[in-house]
Amino acid sequence: xxxxxxxxxxxxxxxxxxxxxxxxxxxxxxxxxxxxxxxxxxxxxxxxxxxxxxxxxxxxxxxxxxxxxxxxxxxxxxxxxxxxxxxxxxxxxxxxxxxxxxxxxxxxxxxxxxxxxxxxxxxxxxxxxxxxxxxxxxxxxxxxxxxxxxxx
Length: 152
What we know:
This protein is mainly α. The protein contains seven helices and two strands; from the N terminus they run αααααββαα. A two-stranded antiparallel sheet has the order 1-2. A hairpin with a 2-residue loop joins strand 1 and strand 2. The longest helix is centred in the first third of the chain and has 21 residues. The radius of gyration is 20 Å and the shape is globular.
């Protein structure tokens, strides 16, 4: 058996594909009146995102969590810089949608940096607490609050 199959949690992958496929079917059926051809409509776009998401899942599942843990500060600061970039980016790159400037427009796609930042913040909190060794005084609690509150 190949190393890719050995290290992949097939059960989770199957469930991921099934649930994501339901989303593709739901979006396609809900928009079939406006977009009679599948490849021109939102269903096709959702399918592309589904395939990208599955590829990301397989890659992330193979990562050694210790490697990610070693880089938590860099990931966190980089994420904060990307979020700050939203505030200073021009409307052509980061348009205001629904009163919020939360998306980068990348051609036909959009990127919402707050979503990956949630994962990075969770990793940062876990690493911060792991280094404390169980001791949490007011100063450390304040630092923890800053760690969680800054991305907000």
